[in-house]
């Protein structure tokens, strides 16, 4: 599987000569954002597809995952450096709590009486480095048709990413 973030960053190779540390630098991130505008939309689209390998997905680490509602097109995107199994378990435990601050998943369940497809959580991407994983997570949050993620989950995402993503829809 080619990864979304790696593909996006290919178009910046010529300008980010700081190479290895570019993802730590704000300036280079700005370059990346600008250069993304030239990324081929069709090519990008090819790399945005979920994996279907359900059993081994749960054992994977450093992933961006998507939890789908069984009863409507709502979904939630998150990322974790731990195994997907561990993170999904946490989500399930959160949902059992019915008091205090409800998660967006709990709210959706309680308001609409819907249930999530816990047995088929998708792995939509993987990135070993936290920074890349967060950017990739934000891209996939924005790619949802009916995302339950909070607005604040994508505050950091540069507007030039958004123009590309809007064209993908
Ligand atoms: Zn739903």
TrEMBL record:
SUPFAM superfamilies: GIY-YIG endonuclease. Transmembrane segments: none annotated. CDD domains: GIY-YIG_PLEs. Residues 60-142 form the GIY-YIG domain. This is GIY-YIG domain-containing protein. It comes from Trachymyrmex cornetzi.
